[in-house]
Amino acid sequence: MQDNPKVSGSLRKRLVLTLIGGAALLAFLLFLAVRNFAVQVAQQGQDNILFASASSMLDAASLRDGVVEVDLPYSAFAMLTTPADDRVFYAIYEDGTFLSGYDDLPFFGSLDDDRPRYRTAQMRGATVRQISAHRTLIGANRRINLQIVLAQTQDALSETLDRIFRTAALLGVSFFALAAAMSLWVTSSTMGQLNRLTTSVTRRGPQDLSPFRNPVPQEMAPLVKSLNSLMGRLDHSLSQSEDFIAEAAHRVRTPLATVRSYAEATLQRVDKEENREAMRSMIKAIDESSRTAGQLLDHAMITFRADQMERREFDLVELLRELVLQLAPIAEMKDLALNLHGAPSVPYAGDPILIQNAVRNLIDNAMKYGPAESAVDITVTAGPPVRITVCDEGPGFPADEIDRLTTRFARGQNAEGKVGSGLGLTIAQDVAGAHGGSIELSNREEGGACVTLLL
Amino acid sequence: MKFLLVEDNRALADAVASRMRLDGHVIDHAEKLEDASAFVATGDYDLILLDIMLPDGDGRTFLERHRASDLDTPVIVLTARSQVSDRIGSLDLGADDYITKPFDHAELEARCRAVLRRKSGNAKTTIERGGIVFDPVAGHLSVGGVGVTLRNRELRLLEVFLNAPGQVFSKQKLADRLFSYDDDVSENAIEVYIGRLRKHLEGSELSITTLRGLGYRLDHAG
Amino acid sequence: MRYLVAVILALLALPLAAQDWEDRQVFGAGDAAVTLRIVSSTDTDLFAPLIEGFVSANPDIAIEYLVTNTSDIDKRFRATPEAFDVAISSAMDLQLKLTNDGYAATLEGVTHPAWAQWRQSLFAFTSEPAAIVVNRAAFEGLAIPRTRQELIEILRAHPDRFRGRVGTYDVRQSGLGYLFATQDARASETFWRLMEIMGGLDVALYCCSGDMIDDLIAGRIAVAYNVLGSYAEARVAGDGPLDIILPSDFRTTMMRTALVSGDSPRPEAAERFVRALIAYTPEGAAAGGGRSLPPLAVEDPGADRATIPLGPALMTFLDALKRDKFLEEWENAVVQD
Description:
Chain A: This is histidine kinase. Chain A: Its EC number is 2.7.13.3. The complex is a heterotrimer. Helix content of chain A is 52%, strand content 20%. By secondary structure, chain A is of the alpha+beta class. In chain A, helix 1 packs antiparallel against helix 3 (155-202), helix 4 (221-269) packs antiparallel against helix 5 (273-307) and helix 7 (352-369) runs antiparallel to helix 9 (423-434). The two termini of chain A are 23 Å apart. Chain C has two domains: 2-127 and 255-305, Periplasmic binding protein-like II (D-Maltodextrin-Binding Protein, domain 2, 3-Layer(aba) Sandwich), CATH 3.40.190.10; 129-253 and 320-334, Periplasmic binding protein-like II (D-Maltodextrin-Binding Protein, domain 2). In chain C, strands 1-3-2-4-13-6-5 form a seven-stranded mixed beta sheet, sandwiched between helices. In chain C, strand 2, helix 2 and strand 3 form a beta-alpha-beta unit. Chain C is globular. The interface between A and B is large, with 53 and 44 residues.
């Protein structure tokens, strides 16, 4: 009955994964951006110092008597001091001829361009940042191009970058952790809305098909709207089902009633005994089919109600008293006594219409099988389980068929000549089942059948 | 007794009406709610038999209006619908009883009597003849001042004879009137009830004569 | 043919080089597992207590201690870095350039204050100020100068008394002398005025502190400028004939440094030795009994600017052009032919 829905993926998981994945990606991009920016800034810083140093060296150059003099300022190298004690290399060239410094450090700039050139290269087993700069010295009768190459290792830079990378990584990880925590929170609060809706659907009674009125987030409004519309249609179709069963009964019984009326009228006018007998058989057949149709429809209605069963508190004794009163004319007609025994009041929670119908069927059967001027005893005792026993003074159940009798359409062997069907017992058993009970069949020692409804 | 039958199915209505008339009742028949209202306004009925589904409306609306207008004429609802759903509605709306179609006339007769008995305050019809006083609604018979309550079938038997004095009823005809068709009735059973009724009628001017091979007849010695 | 000549010259040079040490001494047990070759500019007797302490604590290590001047250390070390395990020199600039040029090994595990080490490779272990040392006898009747300016005035006032009796390093030969001279020149113009005065007084030029102090004690010279105070003090403990003056106008303090050769065949033992060097303390110095080196200053000298900082700026005056220019100026001032 309760089909589990086909599950494909989890909204929560998808949401969490998307948010956390997004956060991870963003954190990583943040890290990369900070890192690249830091590398640029740090490299720019080193380049600036190299440029300042090279410039001060070039500025210290002069021509004296046509000879180049380079009075290296102390500060040129002093400014290259770093916390990581980076190594420093330099070379001074005069028109491409090595003057002093490190001759394994060639000039790599362009003489046509006054701007300094930078590059990162390997030198003496270390990665160095190099600058090439030059300056033209003009003497009385000479023009000399002085070139300076300056190189510095990048230990301090990489230490700084390492520190920045660690900070950036920490930033990224913190961002990720925060975003992950927030995405979990957002997910669970979003899912909370769905869960609340689910709970309120689950908590409803089976008959409660009223629309949801509690406020929901905007995004869930279409869902609730569809749900409400589904409820509405369900409500409509449920009442239609009830209407349909009632209508079906009407459609079947009305023509039967008509036929029966004709047959009865005919019977009044016919005198020939064999014709009368035929008419009687006809009326009996009509009665049997109308009763069967009625019970079938009752059974359908009971199955329907049992599925949707809603329990409510009521007094069983009062219900039975009313039922007995209702059936009294039929009993009287057959000169049968309907006796209700037992406690003055037995409160019970269940579906009174179902129980009344079940007991009515039991009493109907008892009245059918009980001989004229006998008694039908109805006894109710408080439970648990609550027992409602209906006994007649008829022939009783055949001992070998007691079990089979409760099966649908099974009629007792000794029921020949009586209009009716085994549906009565089936209805009683279904109603008992819907209330978590059962029925028991037995025979009385002094004669007669007993059916007990256990609730 | 004066009954109003509100039923759009003419065959059924005729059958019911003819049986009621056999029992000595006066039957007016309405096929629509509109007619029924007109009948109720002009005639004074002891009982209304009301169908639920009528061409111009639901019988329950009529019932509702009827109860609202302070008329306490008892109503028995005739319904072809499921017992489970309709019953509640009609009883809540003030029907005194209901019966599902198709019904056995014996059952309808029993229900009518039960309803009339409950409401006996406003309608008291006794038959006085040949030294007996008979109240068919209460099932009470007194002969020479000594009262006895008849069992249902004795009462029905007496009713059949009193409604057609001098007429001969075969055992089969009596069985058709007394029993429902699903009862197994032997001719012996009729003899038993005839015997009982004869005993009840002792001391009055009424007696049941056996016409061998034909049946029985109620004779008035006076 | 030229190739053959080169080979023969090299072969001839080897034994020459091997014998060409100012001093050579071996410390430690003869059966020691390793023998460290240490090239140093520090006189053996000053260094001996420290080495002896080390070899007694590390009996598996013997030490061959080779002494030469600072320029020679630089030259030899650059030629054959694998031949030496440790280089110890007072010429901070040369040591720094050796390190900058990649000759020194990085000793990761050694902890030493940042100001006293460079690149975890060059480690300072003494603080030694340059001093004016005078023979008290020569200054009889005169005030002992406390600053360079006072010295200049005295020399100027008594040219006859001091002619030919002033001495300083020949900065063309002595690496330490050159370091002190360049640092002085950087600090104050007073240096050049002093040099001119001294040049005018026929200054005696020395290659090494030892000779200068010898002549001071002997009274051949009256004043020595920029002598290592530590040497002088070591030579004349207590009441000698000398006064050691740390000029109060400005001071120039050198730190003796050690480095492990990047090509050392015994890096582990060499590192142990350097660790022992930098663990050198005032208490250890006192235990040496007078003739030993002063320990490293305990405080960071950054603030007083007296101690020559270990940094790339030291390379400035090692530049060939710069050096030529400086020496030219120096010669102009000092060598007044």
